[in-house]
Amino acid sequence: MKKVVKPEQLKAHFKDGMTVMVGGFLGCGSPHRIIDELIQSGVKDLTIIANDTGFVDKGVGRLVVNGQVKRVIASHIGTNPETGRLMNEGKMEVELVPQGTLVEKIRAGGAGLGAVITPTGVGTIVEEGKNKITLNDVEYLIELPLKADLAILGGTMVDHFGNTFFRGTTKNFNIVMSTAADVVIVEADQLVDIGDINPDNIHTPGVLVDFIIEGGNEQ
């Protein structure tokens, strides 16, 4: 199967009400061109799982501003005032998750685990509605795994099979999200031939990647 597709071909994979994991950290390592396609598609009622909601004019934040997001699961929303406004007005649901817990919940989803336990959040608002367990006199929250219909990732160098190298801090959530979605689309800063990436530098193996588009080098 040919994995490299044109951006406009991605619309067939966008559905109202779907859950989308978006790689990146304040836009660094985010798939900006795929986000463009999501916006142009007009898909709505999305649940977004991401580290943050970016800025009003960059990254995930553009989907929020455009009114396409029903629910956000993230660690940080402070750089996008529109997220806070919609949350406070009851127009968008926001679930704030400690960053380490968030990445573990995604990892658990990709690994097929039933749950993870963590002391983070015990005795705070984070524990509301969650089960707890006590081991060796320490209380832990039982955190359920996260999975998505679609993961969209921003890769630095990607070959035609989907083997992906993420430069520096663009690794962030991209690597773990590639394991936890039904469909994985990678936006390549640089598209190369199979064999051009040193196997030791492959962070996401191509077997996990369904589609690739060429990006705009915005990371």
Please sum up the structure shown:
The protein is α/β, with parallel strands linked by helices. 18% of the residues lie in helices and 28% in strands. It has one domain (14-113, 145-214): Glutaconate Coenzyme A-transferase.
List the uncertain runs. none
Q: Supply the helix-strand structural class.
A: alpha/beta
Write the CATH architecture name: 3-Layer(aba) Sandwich
Spell out the helices and strands N to C: EHEHEHEHEEEEEHEE
Number of strands: 11
As a percent range, the share of strand residues is 25-35%
CATH topology: Glutaconate Coenzyme A-transferase
Helix content: 10-25%
How many helix segments?
Answer: 5
CATH superfamily membership, which one?
Answer: Glutaconate Coenzyme A-transferase
Distance between the termini: 28 Å
Spatial shape: globular
**Any idea of the CATH class?**
Alpha Beta
Estimate nothing, just give the exact number of structural domains.
Answer: 1
Task: Outline the biggest β-sheet.
Answer: 8 strands, mixed
Entry keywords:
Glutaconate Coenzyme A-transferase, alpha/beta, 219 residues, globular, 5 helices, 8-stranded mixed sheet
Explain the overall architecture.
This protein has 219 residues and is of the alpha/beta class. The protein has one domain: Glutaconate Coenzyme A-transferase (3-Layer(aba) Sandwich). Helices cover 18% and strands 28% of the residues. It contains five helices and eleven strands; from the N terminus they run E-H-E-H-E-H-E-H-E-E-E-E-E-H-E-E. It has helices at 32-41, 61-65, 81-88, 99-111, 174-177, and strands at 19-22, 46-50, 69-74, 93-96, 116-118, 132-135, 138-143, 148-159, 164-165, 181-192, 211-214. The strands form two sheets. Strands 1, 2, 3, 4, 8, 9, 10 and 11 form an eight-stranded mixed β-sheet that branches. The longest helix is centred in the middle third of the chain and has 13 residues, at 99-111. It starts with 18 loop residues before the first strand and ends in a 5-residue tail after the last strand. The mean pLDDT is 95.
